[in-house]
Amino acid sequence: MRSVAAAMGLRRVVESVPYVGERLLIRGPITALDYGHPDCLLRLPDPGPRWRAHLTRDGLACITLGLDSMPLGASRDAIDTYIRRSAAAGRALVGATGVRTRW
User: Fold this and answer.
1) C-alpha span between 54 and 94 (Å, rounded)
2) pTM
3) Distance between CA 6 and CA 35 in Å, rounded?
4) Once rounded to an integer, what is the mean pLDDT over residues 50-64?
5) Which residue has the higher pLDDT, 44 or 101?
6) What is the rounded CA–CA span in Å between residue 87 and residue 26?
7) Residue 97, phi then psi, degrees to nearest 5
8) Under a CB-based contact definition with an 8 Å cutoff, are residues 28 and 54 in contact?
9) Which secondary-structure segment (H or E) carries 8?
10) What is the pLDDT of residue 84?
């Protein structure tokens, strides 16, 4: 996970979140993240129309990458707790990103 974070330019949670470039791609119902792999993108679960509209109006999103494992299918509350705990322990890396206009 550290090499993925380094490829995207993510940093430890500090006073400000670094801008890591336009890494999100949105085409119709598909949202994907360019995480630095030369041939692959990571398809994201459907974020919903409000989030997609925010991003397409030049909004930003915060990418948070936790360094510890998490069970599949965790609830939103469990994810929130995980992110807060990981950030407090220095085990979460973050970056702000926007939408890339070209794939």
Assistant:
1) 19
2) 0.81
3) 10
4) 91
5) 44
6) 28
7) -140, 165
8) no
9) helix 2-8
10) 92
